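Hi P.,

Sorry for the delay on this. The queue was packed all week, but I finally got your sequence through. Input first:
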Amino acid sequence: MGAVLEVRGLSKSFGGIVALRDVSLEAEEGEVLAIIGPNGSGKTTLLNVITGVYRPDGGGVRLGGEQLVGLSPAQICIKGVARTFQNIRLFKRLTVLDNVMIGQHHRFNAGTARILLASRRSRREEANFAREARELIAKVGLAGLEHAVAQSLPYAKQRLLEIARALAAAPKVLLLDEPAAGMNSEEIVQLEVLVRTLREEGLTVIMIEHVMDLVRGVADRVVVLNYGAKIAEGSFAEIEANPEVIEAYLGKGAGPCSA
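Then the structure:
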């Protein structure tokens, strides 16, 4: 299908600490790309560079051939890259529905004046977005919780809400930073079904994850980082048999990644 997102030669240092070392990868349309590696290997830094939180010291990021480096996180989101966070970032005192609709804000066409005056056009547009938001809430498994306050939800449901909010931006590429963290086995299965559904709908998903059962179940390809450098790339079967990955990620003498 061709690459939707291309990362070429990304490098990023913080003082004397090298977080990314000449990292290159690409994600194709409708593909789930998993990024794994030990804590501190540069995975979240990579997502932060892709989304404009950090500017790289070298290299580039292209979405559909368009350079993203130098754009703000808001501009990159408008271009089509949305994300969730390792540490959940919701508007905790707002409702589930309000949180998801905030993710749609850059897609509203009615101007500020029309919104303040509650014009017919703005009311119609808001009703359409509210209907879409409810559909997204149901898609991630939170139907019936539209009016619940976000902070009242269990931790795993807050993670699903954050995914719904990211999807509300109508992205071309969805970045998930450890989406299964804090989930039990049943909730991870639910997440796996959701990610597979998104892939079937043609969405490109890049996922940082430590839960290998989830990676095995959904990833088309896996990239492994260690000390900020890419040390392996391939199918899950190829990765779990790679001696360098086993040593870097699990320690010498450990079994394959599925252990």
